[in-house]
Amino acid sequence: MKFLFTFLLVVICSTSSYTQEDTYVKGTVIDLSTDQPIDRVNIVNLNQVIGTSTDEEGNFEIKAQLNDTLHLSYLGYKSIKVRVTNDWLKFGETKIGMTELALALEEVVVKQLKLTGYLEIDVKQVPIKSNYRYSISGLSNRGYEAGNRRPNAVSKVLGAIFNPADFLHNVFGKKPRELRKLKKMKEDDVIRNELASRFDREMLMVLLQVDRFDLDEIVNQCNYSKDFIQAANDLQILDAISECYEEYKVLNRDKAGRF
Known about the structure:
The protein has helices spanning 2-21, 86-91, 119-122, 153-161, 164-172, 176-187, 189-196, 202-208, 212-221, 226-231, 234-257; strands at residues 24-31, 42-45, 50-53, 59-63, 69-73, 80-83, 95-98, 133-134, 144-145. It is of the alpha+beta class. The relative contact order is 0.11.
């Protein structure tokens, strides 16, 4: 009898665990002002670091558990967070409304060049910015971007190797889950595709739980140039942070092994 009770308990626990791991929620995203469905809305489960998007009818389905938070974003609309509730899991579907943002063009400042009409003179006025990345012996990754090629560039690279992850640790040290999210974000194709088309850093800030200043400072401390930080898309920023941290772990492990 005792054996039967134990067996039933194991079966119930296993069934419960399996059910919990495979629960999904469905929904339809609409424009609150028109009640029309919005297609291609990006949806990310911030807890499980998986993503999806709405279809032409505004419908979506995503793996989620109780109290997971979904982040919804779409160009021209205010991003929102929605928590997964018992009712949502029980009834299966819900409607989520998004509000359109007023779009405003930022002021663009154009620096005028004083041209003389002589090509040899005028061409020298055009700023040329070349950033070089140095490969590091013993590392499989591409190395560090060190800015302009100058005599101190290599020493700048070597100095940066041991410093950036200290900053990363200071930022994420009390939030180790955020560091684990780096790997998950790189593995999810939906998230990667979405990040490749974005330049606003919003999703990165939400997923990593840092503000814009800290995000830029992390990449800067990893010795990437201002040109890269300003021009890179969100996926490139993600890869830069991840690569920087992975290289640090390799070097730090080798350093620890020598003592």
